[in-house]
Prior knowledge:
- By secondary structure, the chain is of the alpha/beta class.
- The chain has 2 domains: 7-216, Spore Coat Polysaccharide Biosynthesis Protein SpsA, Chain A, CATH 3.90.550.10; 219-296.
- It has 11 helices and 11 strands.
- It has helices spanning 17-32, 52-59, 74-84, 164-169, 175-178, 184-194, 220-238, 242-258, 262-270, 273-286, 291-296, and strands at residues 7-13, 38-45, 64-67, 89-93, 97-99, 116-123, 129-134, 137-142, 150-151, 159-163, 198-209.
- The strands form 2 sheets. Strands 1, 2, 3, 4, 5, 6, 9, 10 and 11 form a 9-stranded mixed β-sheet that branches.
Amino acid sequence: MNNNLKVSVVIPNYNGKDLLEKNLAQTLKAQDTLSNNIIETIVVDDASLDDSVSFLKKNFPNVRLIKHKVNRGFSYSVNTGVRMAKGDLVVLLNTDVLPEKNFLENVLPHFNDEKVFAVSLHEKGFSWAKGSFKNGYLEHSLGKVAKEAHITFWASGGSGVFRRKLWNSLGGMDEKLLSPFYWEDIDISYRAQKRGYKVLWEPNSFVTHKHESTINKLSKSYVSRIRQRNELLFIWKNITSKNLTKKHITQVFVRMLKHPGYIRIVLMAICKISLVLQKRKKEIKESKVSDEAIFTRF
């Protein structure tokens, strides 16, 4: 194990007092486990309207509390936490994720390899993620649970460990393009892979995800529209292969013909087209690995 790499835990929070009350103590037990190398736990409060801040100050004075004055969304909160962190590595945990006591013991050695950008933790019932490009769109699914570490298409933004220096060089999560939520962790993982870095899944780093986050309280139709819009934004920004881009454009028109309601999603994405094209230029310039090469791995 590399004992030189120090770890910061970053937990974004919005109106999550009840979840912090149920789950934060378990994260702090993990911090007390020396093999995890955790030097601090940071909660970034995104202008909560509940009693999250006063609860934390009263009950968890050793937690580093960072407060947004206005609500800015998930990726902004994560980026704030990573920017303020002191560790070489950052663990991103949602408020509804509970880590086991020694959850980083088998993760830290992976970062001895300078090419490893991130390691996704093992949420019980899930495994590494497959990524493929079919019918003009990105498809992802669960890979077969393995006993050894495995490459994964992305590391989870709610239960993953990231190399902070590389995170910062990539500009963090794309808060301007993908806010308020969805596809941010896939986006930063993919950008790292396009630059030649590795993203892994570690089977022996257990966490339990209770799926009680704020997003589940929002309108399902709204969440679905944002997810579909961000899928388009991800593809337009990151899939720079001319061949795959042609296939995608064709299939966008096919979808709109078959499902006229999809036109609304496309228009939502087109509203950000100038920003997308600006970011796409950067990806074309800085990428070292082709889209086809990445999808071939899975």
